[in-house]
Amino acid sequence: MKYRPVCIACVLLILGILFCRFAGIPVFGRPKIPESAQSVLESGTTASCSGEIVERNRKKKSVQYIIKDCRAEFRDDKNQVCRIRIGYLKVTVLPEVTVLPETNFADDNKLAGTGLLTEEELKERDIGQLPVGSKVIFRGKLSEIDGPSNPGEFDSRKYYACRKIYYEMLNEKVMVTDPGGGLREHLAAFREGVSARQAKLMHPKQAGVLSAMLLGDRSMLSEESKERYRYGGVMHVLAISGLHISVLGMIFYELLFRVLLSGMPSHIRAGQAIAAAGAAAVTGIYCVFAGSPVSAVRAMIMFGLALGAKILRRSYDVLCAVGISAILLLLTRPGYLFDAGFQLSYAAVGGAAVFYPALLGLVPKNYWHRGSRIKKIFEKILEAFLMWVAVMLCTIPVAAYAFSEIPVLPFATLLIVPAMGAILILGIAGSTAGMLCSPAGWLLLIPVDLLLQLFERIALFVKTIPGSVWTVGKPERWQLMAYGFCLLLVWICLRHGMGRRAALVAAAAVLVLSLKWSPALSIAMLDVGQGDSLVISRGLGMWKPGGDPVYLVDGGSSSVKQPGKYRIIPYLKSRGVTRIRGIFVSHGDQDHLNGIEELLKEIVGQRIRIRVDALYLTPQMQNDAAGGHLIKLCRKAGIRIVFLKKGNTLQDGKLRIRVLHPDTEPENGSGTGGTDGRAAGASLGDTSRGASDGMTGGRNEDSMVLLLSFGDFDALLTGDLEGEGERKVLEEAESVEYLKVAHHGSRNSTSDSFLRKVSPVVCMISAPEKSRYGHPAGETLTRIREAGAEYYVTRDCGAICLETKGRGSFRIRTFRREADMVR
Fold first, then answer.
1. What string of H, E and C letters represents the secondary structure of 439-490?
2. How far is CA 271 from CA 250, 254, 478, 774, in A?
């Protein structure tokens, strides 16, 4: 390191950024907002925002703009006009947005503007084609970008904060004060044109993949393709990276150098300098063209340094180039240090630069470059495998922390990455030719189309191999630090030729990363907006490798889109869950089961590696449309279906689950197939008969009610119970420590008599921040307080997790704010 002062400076810069982060020093570009305005922005308010468009991204049903130098005008909580600068702003524009021909937004807070377009020009302008560089005024709902409310959920706030974007607007009206244009707009328009032409010349699925590879545009990338590449372990080929920059840059460098050399053979160094400058300019323009992703900018800087070293006839040091690129990026945007893309890019390069040479050193020098052609092929395979190992060693902790799962088989990487050079060359040539002559572009893109189809088949094959993906869960910070220390020991062992010790230390590092806290009993209420979802696990009360099997009680929402995909499944992955012992559905309302439908669809499509043992329904759901759909999905997935009624019990170690409601006896033949009415450790009633005609699974009073007992701890889970159903349960109810408040805290549920009978210590309520039904009702909260119980609401706390050892004491932790409780 003493010969690499740049690397030392980079480390010091990283430490300085970390210090500023934890000390609260404002170096991340967050605008200073008055307190009276901040409270309004947290919940959202109507505002007018002016600025310059610097980026345009097309989505499937909207267009997203990033504007800089944004000035916002709105009314604060004191109803006074507030004018502030918020730097960058993310604006989502829907197709029905109105384009206004004048500056006056009715009598709203007016922002001055000049150089307006005429009304006729505005009518002709497509709202999805506002040029980059345009100066505009947007009108709509301005709010702070929301953070996650559950473990494992994607952190939009952190993602955009790394890019100095802290606020977003859902636009309703827009006015263009200056049409803008320029180089960035021409590049953006050309990028969209190339993407559209690729879609015409290739199969749609392969066109979406090529567009992501060459242009950084994932708007056409199908979820199926994305999922196959992710589980095949080759998701990185869909990102603009060093491979793209080096291939493109070297092509232009060689072409320019050969052309210049033929014109001035006696000026080789001058030709090299001009060719290098031209190649650097091309890669720089390509970075802007592709949207300037972190990995591409990093690769562009390192490529430029490599060319400079070649021209000056100096040695090129990869670690110094890595340090310089990181310093330049972090000085521009310090928040990149906390961005997963930045971390993965530099971890991969660091692994290739540091661990790959050390791994090669374990192979005797006399082994290389000797023998037959077949042996040389094996040498190439060995080199590629060692490179994969080196990169994996450094990227595993980053991938685990960001995604909770890691592809662990190298087959797709070894087969696909070597062919990427041909894909990029032919893809660039075919896309360029297609803009000039469609038949020529079509001919050049035929082999690209075929290769991409082959890539998907390879990725699909790897995905189907058992164990190809390791659901490691999200590690704690101490685990990341322990892994980093072990990684340092691995490198030291490799440098001294101690391969076996290095392998043992690496195995220990992976073991440490796989450890998960296994509470004796935990009940987690997830924040799914207007809906319900609880995850129950029984463990060992200690750290152990892998996650515990869980039970899922309900899972749905009427206010959050795709709650299964974006909230429930990410939570399960973050805990390293690969097995669900049982899914209990209280009744047939969509806000209790649409997330479960998504989960079952993912399992049927083999898009997640989670096994479900059984689905538990009420008899009333058998002839209900929602219940019938769940039953069909379970049959496809090979999941047992069991119908429960009052008196059924399930025993899982110390955990006992007893059904208190409904008490309706099924009457008709079930016809479910495979429902023997009995699970491992269960004592369930006869489920061979179905529900009578006319019953529906959507009646709240027919909700399934479960009583959980674990030692001296009891929990009552009530679904949407109310009315006659609550009165029936009241006869069987007993004192409990934990009450899941029925029907999101509706005033028609959880009566005074019910609270007196169950006398809970804590009550949990699942309700969104702005419930259109007014949940939780003030009357219900008053009744809970008068009963002497504490209550937690997901709108305030996010996910709420209770842990207990079954001795009457418990601990509650909340995800969103400090509201821990120990009893």
1. HHHHHHHHHHHHHHHHHHHHHHHHHHCCCCEECCCCCCHHHHHHHHHHHHHH
2. 14, 11, 53, 73
d(CA 782, CA 392): 55
Give SS3 for 734: coil
Q: Decide the pairing of beta strands 165-178 and 515-518.
A: unpaired
Contact in structure between 139 and 174 (CB atoms under 8 Å):
yes
Sequence-distant (≥ 6) Cβ neighbours of residue 485 within 8 angstroms: none
Tens of pLDDT, residue by residue over 621-677, are: 988 888 999 999 999 999 999 999 999 999 999 999 999 999 875 444 333 333 443
Whether residue 116 is predicted with pLDDT greater than 50 in this model: the reply is no
Q: CA–CA separation, 556 vs 764, rounded Å?
A: 17
Tokens 């909700």 correspond to 703
Residues linked to residue 764 through DSSP beta bridges, in sequence order: 740, 792
pLDDT digits (tens, 9 = 90+) for 178-211: 887 788 888 888 888 899 999 999 999 999 999 9
Judge contact between 737 and 761, C-beta under 8 A. yes
CA dist 286 → 66, 282, 291 (Å): 20, 6, 9
Write the CA distances from 540 to 473, 477, 568, 652, 805, integer angstroms: 17, 22, 23, 13, 9
606-615 exposure pattern, b = at least 16 Cβ within 10 A, e = fewer: ebbbbebbbb
Give pTM, 2 decimals: 0.90
Buried b (16+ CB within 10 A) or exposed e, 779-804: ebbebbeebebebbbbbebbbbbbbb
The rounded radius of gyration (Å) of the Cα atoms in the chain is 30
